[in-house]
Amino acid sequence: MKKFLIVAVFLLIVSCSSTVTNYTPGSTIEPVTEGEIRLWHQSEKAEEAIRKSGQLLGSDEIDTYLQGIMDELFPEYRGYIRVRALKKPVLNAFAMPNGSIYINSGLLGVMQNEAQLATVLAHEGVHFLNKHSARQREHFHQAAGWMMAISMLGIPLLAEVTFASAVTGYSREHETEADLEGFKRLQRAGYQVSEARKTFEHLLREVEAEDIKAPFFFSSHPKLQARIRNFNELASKTENNGGKISQEKFLNTLMQLRIDVLDKKIEKGRYNAVIAILENDGLARSYGHARYFYLGEAYRLRAEESDLEKALEQYSLYELSNGDRSVLKPRGITHLKLGNYDLAERDFKQYLNVTQDAPDRGFVEQYLRMIDKKKSGE
């Protein structure tokens, strides 16, 4: 019964939106038609639910940084398009009908500079300005698909009809329109447009590694390929503009968040995703020394053929690059799994020496007792 009511409300909303005009500079940004008013009302309820759900990242520094990029892309709409980050590891971003744009930490974690981030924000800004939520007619996933998408954000059923399309993706026409107009916004803001396709190449690499089939726009394999084709074609018709990439500011603001995303992926067992990110040399370098540690962890925990040997190599690179001794315990575990008992014993003893107050001291001592038994043939 609930599903029927939700679909009925959605059909009522789109039926009230038959005459839709884009926002243009100088025009009112407020809803005009009855359908738009309904969508804005639903958006406000959805945003209230997001706030109460605890899904907002809550970092003023990051939100201010994101907002600054958006204001640069859409200067004539400064104050109308609002950007905030969500603490979700899913590859997604979406625009609400009322001008609120949300981007997941998972998406922020797989980009390497501001030009790539601006590509996503420009795309989502166009979805709002061109009122794609109100225009959406045919590209609407079955109830199970979009209900799953919204439930993963922790949003109640009341808000689902508002941005089902925003979360699960728009029609090909609307996505292509957002690509084209978003590309123009990148150019006008002075960004290096050749970085645009790399944004979606990073996402595609992770999607393929995990065989993701969730109904999110930025997780859809065919749509990511379409994004790459679109931006390749657009860039081929544009002279190298030598625009800004702004990697330093991007990393200074988002490095800890990106590291936290790697942590969450490791915690959730998404080892293939971490490996897909950190095996790409260009993207991996943007993580600094941490890339060696997390790639080592992903290999160790995945533990497929030759993974343990690869893990040892990464741990050694991490230790050599910055002298961090936190690598001793996981490297010791890796040696233990490989039967390198002397090396495992060495690492565990060094770990206990340099971390006198280690909360896991008991576990490490248990490993050492296990090694003693192995070496004595028990």
Descriptive report:
By secondary structure, the protein is mainly α. The chain is built from 19 helices and three strands. Strands 1-3-2 form a three-stranded mixed sheet.
Summarize the structure.
This protein has 378 residues and is mainly α.
If helices are DSSP runs of H or I spanning 4 or more residues, what is the number of helices? Answer: 19
Number of distinct beta strands:
3
Please provide the ordered H/E string of secondary-structure elements. Answer: HHHEEEHHHHHHHHHHHHHHHH
Q: What's the overall average pLDDT, rounded? A: 81
Give the strand content: under 5%
Helix/strand-derived category reads mainly alpha
Defining key terms:
elongated; 378 residues; 19 helices; mainly alpha; single chain; 3-stranded mixed sheet; disordered N terminus
Topology at a glance:
Elements: H1 2-15, H2 34-53, H3 60-73, E1 82-86, E2 93-95, E3 100-104, H4 105-108, H5 114-129, H6 132-135, H7 143-151, H8 160-168, H9 172-188, H10 196-210, H11 221-236, H12 247-267, H13 271-278, H14 281-285, H15 290-302, H16 307-322, H17 328-338, H18 341-354, H19 361-375
Parallel strand pairs: 1-3
Antiparallel strand pairs: 2-3
